[in-house]
């Protein structure tokens, strides 16, 4: 159960798809919206629901006859993920209370994830957003213990209450383990950030601790599997498989967190002027083949549509050019493969660093027009070139 910024893989550095990339794929089935936040359920959840139902049915069968026992076991699977949903919703609500936009809440095979579009601006807010999820689970576990102690429950209700109490206790404690991408890792990051004044130091330390947690999880699963086999149990392999899955999830998340900080180190070094491609200016009616010939002749890497006075009107999509068969290029005009340039897609040639990244986030696209202070076209900035600038981090 994590909260995170949106992933950037397959997208622009701003984490947004370009206009030629198609719509952002949904992380699962849209179940609705709460507090303005879309809630998705990954198809993998249904597989886990079936698995939980089958595993839990054996306990339910001791108090309820079949086939009703399967219905009760499935109800437990739904309630279990209800606890996970409340956990993630707590992150989302707390983030929104601090003015941070939340993209989505997704339930999946390993629990859930809350995608928050921006990081918290202070370590205190980071701490509160991270702690909100485990806190809710621990409160639910406490309510379960209280219900067990004071309420006259039937055998089925008691079984469900006890199982959910244990599940919430496990989810709450597990998420407090001190390593990214778990909530406990966010707490470590916030603490180090507060102590050092540098969020980067907190993320790097929490990421390395997360890798340690991943290894410990795998070792614990191996020990449980060994103990289960020695005791004659038949679920040892399942414990090992599940621990390996969880360990890989934590390791990948921790590694991505470390890599993200190295990426941030490069942001101040970004320069639109340095990354720009030289542009060939053509009118919209010029055949695509002729526009490409002129670009090759001028050693340009981009084509800009301009009027007869040289004023830029549009950008020819590199992706569209590549997708056009060579034999059709003489019969298609360059303007047919262009998109208009507005103020959001026109950037000053001297823009750099965070200012450049903010401009990309405001108007996601695959190409941007770069202009000099006097309005002359300097070149074209392709987001694929920015991605390559981050490659190898």
List the helices and strands and how they pair.
Blueprint: E1 2-4, E2 29-34, E3 37-41, H1 43-60, H2 68-97, E4 102-108, E5 111-116, H3 123-150, H4 155-175, H5 183-196, H6 199-230, H7 236-266, H8 272-275, E6 279-282, H9 288-297, E7 302-306, E8 312-316, H10 318-323, E9 338-340, E10 346-348, H11 353-362, E11 367-371, E12 377-382, H12 383-390
Parallel strand pairs: 1-5, 3-4, 6-7, 10-11
Antiparallel strand pairs: 2-3, 4-5, 7-8, 8-9, 11-12
Q: Which structural category fits the helices and strands?
A: alpha/beta
Give the mean pLDDT.
Answer: 84
CA-to-CA gap between the ends?
Answer: 26 Å
Which geometry do the CA atoms define? elongated
Tell me how many strands there are. Answer: 12
Compute the gyration radius: what is it?
27 Å
β-sheet strand percentage: 5-15%
Topology as a string of helices (H) and strands (E): EEEHHEEHHHHHHEHEEHEEHEEH
Q: Low-confidence parts lasting 5 or more residues at pLDDT below 50?
A: 5-23
Name the helicity range.
40-55%
Strand order of the largest sheet: 1-5-4-3-2
Number of helices: 12
Biggest sheet record: 5 strands, mixed
